[in-house]
Amino acid sequence: MPDEIELRLLIEAIYLRYSYDFRDYSKASLKRRVRQAQAQLDCPTISALQARILHEPQAFMQLLQYLTIPVSEMFRDPEYFLALREQVVPLLHTYPSLKVWVAGCSTGEEVYSLAILLHEEDLLERTMIYATDINPHSLEKAEQGIFALDNLRTYTQNYQLSGGKRAFSDYYSAAYDRVLFDKSLRANVTFADHSLATDSVFAETHLVSCRNVLIYFNRDLQDRALGLFHDSLCHRGFLGLGSKESLDFSTYARQFEAVSRPERIFRKR
Amino acid sequence: MSSQRINLRGQVRAPLQALLIGASAGGVEALLSLLEDLPPDYRLPVVCLLHQPERSDSLLADLLQRRLKLPAKEAEDKEYLRGGVVYVAPAGYHLSIETDRSFSLSREEPRHFSRPSIDILFESAADAYGEQLAAALLTGANEDGAAGLLAIKQAGGLTLVQEPADALVPTMPNAALALLKPDFLLSINAMRLLLAELDALPC
Q1: Which of A65, A158, A265, B32 has its CA 20 to 30 A from that of A1?
Q2: Residue A71: which of B78, B99, B109 has the nearest Cβ?
């Protein structure tokens, strides 16, 4: 089919021109997002979009916003955070200092959620959080810690269900249609550009949280990412995945054991 | 019974490799009566997408597992489709089929207020299977699925729509009929017979 060929060529062009590697992403979702960008950038075909992004870096940055999915919420899947609190935090307390990697942090909702959880468990001060993503705009937003007021009701409910110990409003100040999260939450957070497709391990960590990122990868790239997490994690370190993600189809399946299977929290053997 | 048998010769253009079913309001009962009689040696994979609330833990797979003669399970990310298995789309994620005929999940925006969306499943499956695909759109109070069924028809697949008069909520079948002329417009009872026939076709 011509559009399958065009899609492959576009992905190759992006890789050659900008070094962003989408070659091992799941194609069905990628194609839908390229189609959306194509309509938005007013290109009649994927080939036309390809010509445009090759010559206009600005247009590529616009396309990139479609190719990375900035759909996230704070304390998404509250049961995950509850399981972290109850089953992982007690073990994290045994380390004198902690390193946490939020891989594919998007616009930062999960980073602030984890920071709040660690703060309430008296761990934040001795923790270094690495928050990484491939999208510079998302990282910039994440670093600002400003979120839309519209979503706050959901976030507050999620926070309460996740075992939150205070009033959620203790952590932010609202102005107009936005809320600004307390900057002390990100005092120990390093936001960094990192690709699970092309970059390597940068630190030894105790907990890796990477949720709803692997679903966009094919099996090969899932394995590459899981390999990075495995290499980054310390002996008996923890790995948290999205609610429908698993290690079952991975070559790393035997290198982890389940801490909480329903909440997709695993531990390095 | 033989008078009710539906002649499929000339309708199916290629050996079928998968069957998809989309439904919304009223869909549980429709799915059960449609699939209950499928024999344990059914050859095709059957993928069911029923609209349900974002956070509901899917009880549908359990229900189907108990009531059907075929094994039923929730579709998992990167799992290859296998014949004779009934798959159910998980809540809160879009379900696609890749060209290597494995499932993939995604968290893109809802379409027609739905995640999972039938359009997304059907459109991706049209790319993956082309004319080797059959898809049915059943009762529902929403227009999701019509555009997806059109994509399947354009790719040469076999399209089935539940007769609006037979549907608990006719919005979804009507939306499909506004966009395309399906190969078959049938009641659930007639469709049940057809599904058995589909599997019996030489491949």
Answers
A1: A65
A2: B109
Q: What's the gap in Å between the CA of B197 and the closest CA on chain A? A: 30
Sign of CA dihedral B104, A142, A184, A202: positive
SS3 A124: helix
CATH number for the domain harbouring residue B39 = 3.40.50.180
Whether B195 maps to a domain, the answer reads yes
Q: How many domains, in total, are found in chain B?
A: 1
Chain B residue numbers touching A216 (CB-CB < 8 A):
104, 106
Closest chain B residue to A29 measured between Cα atoms?
B106
Of B78, B79, B96, the CB nearest to A29: B96
Q: Which domains does chain A have, with CATH numbers?
A: 2-67 (no CATH), 78-268 (3.40.50.150)
Please say if B94 is a catalytic residue.
no
This complex has an ipTM of: 0.94
Write out pLDDT tens, residues B40-98.
Answer: 999 999 999 999 877 666 789 999 999 999 999 999 999 999 999 999 999 999 999 99
What is the layout of strands, in order, in the sheet containing A233-241? Answer: A189-193, A127-133, A98-103, A205-210, A233-241, A265-268, A256-260
